[in-house]
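Weekly puzzle thread! Below is a chain. First person to post its structure in token form gets bragging rights.
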Amino acid sequence: MFEQAFKNIDDVLWKEDGCTTELDYTEQTSWLLFLKYLDGLEQDKATEAALNGKKYSYILDKPYRWETWAAPKSKDGKLDHNKAMTGDDLCDFVNQKLFPHLHGFKQQASGPNTIEYKIGEIFGEIKNKIQSGYNLREIIDHVDELRFRSQTEKHELSHLYETKIKNMGNAGRNGGEYYTPRPLIRAMIAVTKPQLGETIYDGACGSAGFLCESFDYLRAQNPKRTTAQDKTLQERTFYGKEKKSLAYVIAIMNLILHGIEAPNLIHTNTLSENLADIQDKDRYDVVLANPPFGGKERAEVQQNFPIRTGETAFLFLQHFIKILKAGGRGAVVIKNTFLSNTDNASMSLRKLLLESCNLHTVLDCPGGTFLGAGVKTVVLFFEKGRPTRNIWYYQLVPSTSSGQARSLGKTNPLNDDDLAEFVKLAASRTSATGVMAPAGPETPKSWNVDVSKTLGTAEVDLSVKNPNGGEEVNHRSPKEIMAEIAALDVASAQVLAGIKKLL
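Winning reply:
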């Protein structure tokens, strides 16, 4: 229904000098989508108020509403070209009036969880990069074709937006920073099993993939919800923090498209919080996250943590352990060297995790799970409140429909079928009463390690060592190799075309 409109928007942005990457495309599409969504939300609320004999108080003053500046309509419902701005007039209005006005909402908002605060935060962080007012007019006309009224419309828009985020993540070498493969997220959620009424947190939320998928999971698990339960889902279930401006804006838009009107997202550096300041009221039932790894934090940030290290992911793991409630559950992606590194920080952090949490499962992910990340990763599944005695390892080896192992790559990404056996085996550990067996099922891809005897030792090596022979060496077929080469050739041609335009 809306796929062509998204393609048309990208085509115009491709011609725009101020937008040169997939990141720019997604950012500029996001702020326009947000304002179009806000217009639809306000119209719906105004209609609802009128049916109840009440008057609706609009968030935006009339000159700044979409229907006034972006898409004024004539009596026949078509764009009124006499009132619609274009060219320099449109750019001047957007840059000098609209953005400053919307940014001012942050100071007026009653709190960070209001839609007014989100408006102010978004338009204080991003800039309009569309320099041509004629291109901007063309993009606005395409955005105006989109509708957010029905669930079917929202579902399609959220799917198309997820595709944009995926393309953005795949565009650069730091793809995992913006996009965690959705099949992996869904598997992490399925094993962690969040329940309606629990709080779910991601302190490095990126594009909010974990929160969006958790929202879909809880709705599917509870199809017959009450109005009160829906209100809980909307307002008191999903919480996130994000440091980077672009990711924050995309996360807000992603959650809105999935159906959460005023997401509980805070634009902040999570690691700037002192762990000693976290109290019971600040804690959550479930943590789901893929924190950035390989980054370096300044000395003053490291002061907030008992185990001081410049490795961003290790600081995040300390934060997640601290912010979980007693009995709370976590599933966190981390690079696999964490399991075996012999530096003091790694060994101390492993000991902290094993002593304060039951690290019951480690999922070993193959290379290529995160496109462009360049490192192998594992997923740690743990429950806070009692020490680890046994760890169940599962070595993920993706296969073809015929059962042969296959390598992951841009043309051959991770899918839900790859993780189906892991999810099924993990579920088999839990009884009907919810009690988890100490050990997991043993298969050629899975095994158990008793760590109770080594818990007191200094090193506590947790590295993945499959006693059943390990991961098979997989040689791709010539057909797979040629398909990837062809895809890379197309991507190279697009990059060269963009460079030629700049010359």
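Puzzle host: Confirmed. Bonus trivia for everyone else. The chain has two domains: 3-149, 159-468.
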